[in-house]
C-alpha cells in the first residue's frame, strides 16, 4: 500500500474466501474441487457429443456448445482463486488481477445473457416458422449470433473497467468474498462511485432486462403458437423442446435477481455468498444435466457414442 497525498493506493487485497472457520476449510475445498471438476466434465461431455455426432450439428446445439464453453470459462474465472487459496494458502490478490477477474466475470455473464436470447429466437423460429427454419437459421446467421454474444458481452465491460481504473482510493484492503465481484469491490471505494452506479444501472437495462424482455417476447409468440395446436400430445411435444432452455433461463435470472436486486439489509453476508456460489457454481453444473436429462437427441447421441466406442474396442 502506498500513500499518495490524501489517497491510499492499494496494490494488493486480502481475500477471505467462502468461510474462515478452520473446521470448514477441508470440506469447502473438497466441495469446490468436486463441483469444478463436475462442471468441466459435464460441459466437456456436451461439447464432445456435439462435435462427434453429426445429428447434433444444428443451430440449437451450436448455441448449446457456446453455452458450455461460457460455463467452463465462467466457473474457472470465479472458482480458481478459491482453489488456489486452499492449495497454496495465499489469500492475496493484486489490484490488476482482481479487476481482470471482475471484468471476465461480468463479461462472461453478459455473453450468456445475449446467447440465451439468441437461443430463444432459435426456438421461436423453429416452432413458429418451421418451414423456413433452415433458411433463416443458416450457418452464417448462427455465426453472427455467436460472435455478437461474445463481442457485445465483453464490450459492456469497457466503461466499468475505465471507471474502476480511475478510482485509486480504497477504504479497506480485505475482500470478504471468494472472488472479486463488482458490487463487493464497489463497497471498498473511499467515496461513493456515482459514475460506476450509473454505468451499472444503464448496463443492467441493456444487457440484463433487454435480453430478458426479448426472451420473454419470443416465448409469448411460442405459447400463442402452441395454443393453436389441437392435440394435447402435440402441445406437450412442442413445449418439451423448449423446456431445457426455459429451465436454464429461469435458474440464471432468478438467482441473479435474488442476489443483486434484493434490499441491502435483507440478507447477511454469508447468505449473499451462498447465493453467489449458487449461480457461479451450480448453474454451470446443472446446465449440461438439464440439457441431457430433458433432451432425447442428447440421450440418443450419448448412446450412439457409447456403441461406437464399444465397436472400436
Description:
With 313 residues, the protein is mainly alpha-helical. The chain has one domain: Rhopdopsin 7-helix transmembrane proteins (Up-down Bundle), CATH 1.20.1070. Helix content is 74%, strand content 5%. It has eleven helices and five strands; from the N terminus they run βββααβααααβααααα. It has helices at 25-52, 59-88, 95-128, 133-136, 139-155, 157-166, 182-186, 194-227, 232-260, 269-293, 296-312, and strands at residues 2-4, 7-9, 12-15, 92-94, 174-175. The strands form two sheets. Strands 4-3-5 form a three-stranded mixed β-sheet. Strands 1-2 form a two-stranded antiparallel ribbon. A hairpin with a 2-residue loop joins strand 1 and strand 2. The longest helix has 34 residues, at 95-128. Residues 1-7 have low confidence and may be disordered.
Write a brief caption for the model.
The protein is mainly alpha-helical. The protein has one domain (2-312): Rhodopsin 7-helix transmembrane proteins (Rhopdopsin 7-helix transmembrane proteins), CATH 1.20.1070.10.
